[in-house]
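Dear H.,

Thanks for agreeing to be a second pair of eyes. The structure we're designing against is below in token form, covering all 201 positions.
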């Protein structure tokens, strides 16, 4: 087979792979998509059942009083209540926070978030920030993405990308960092295609 025929065959295979990947992605989306609790929590915020811990506090007071309740509300702001266990398993989402010299951990179970002080085993992600940054995030929700994108706060992926996606972290990670954890796979696929194309031409 000459180079032209080989190139046509390669293009056909790539298009076929893209179609197959799109179908698989659609199936995985519906399989991995958990229940959306946005409406439930919107009602809790509106009714006053959930109150921002920085309410009626100055910035300085909020920094001094920073505790696990502030961490919990940061997770509410990130919509972490929509995280869910990996399909067909009881592996719940686990987040670890490093805030100044303090360590907190959070577990999400069916829309409910529990926060405790201390480390946790087999965490999915680690969020590193400061009390000052945390208070800024709570006083201005728009500041959350700015804090992460500027490097003042960091989100480190510990679990594998597939596991993170299956638990619902994709939306949170993309929202706060502006980056997609699926970008790595796409970049790898494109680079592989270009290498093959350059080789046969």
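And this is the sequence the design step returned. I haven't edited it by hand at all.
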């Amino acid at each position: 087979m000459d180079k032209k025929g080989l190139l046509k065959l390669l293009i056909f295979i790539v298009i076929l792979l893209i179609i197959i990947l799109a179908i698989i992605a659609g199936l995985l989306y519906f399989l991995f998509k958990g229940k959306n609790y946005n409406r439930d929590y919107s009602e809790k915020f509106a009714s006053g059942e959930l109150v921002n811990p920085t309410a009626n506090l100055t910035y300085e007071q909020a920094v001094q009083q920073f505790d696990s309740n502030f961490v919990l509300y940061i997770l509410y702001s990130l919509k972490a209540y929509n995280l869910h266990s990996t399909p067909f398993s009881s592996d719940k989402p686990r987040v670890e926070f490093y805030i100044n010299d303090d360590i907190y951990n959070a577990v999400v179970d069916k829309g409910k978030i529990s926060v405790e002080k201390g480390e946790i085993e087999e965490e999915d992600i680690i969020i590193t920030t400061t009390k000052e940054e945390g208070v800024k995030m709570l006083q201005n929700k728009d500041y959350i993405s700015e804090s992460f994108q500027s490097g003042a706060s960091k989100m480190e992926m510990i679990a594998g990308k597939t596991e993170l996606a299956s638990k619902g972290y994709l939306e949170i990670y993309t929202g706060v960092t502006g980056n997609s954890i699926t970008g790595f796979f796409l970049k790898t696929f494109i680079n592989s295609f270009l290498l093959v194309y350059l080789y046969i031409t």
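Two observations from my side: The beta strands are 94-99, 102-109, 112-117, 125-129, 154-157. The first helix runs from residue 3 to 32.

Warmly,
E.
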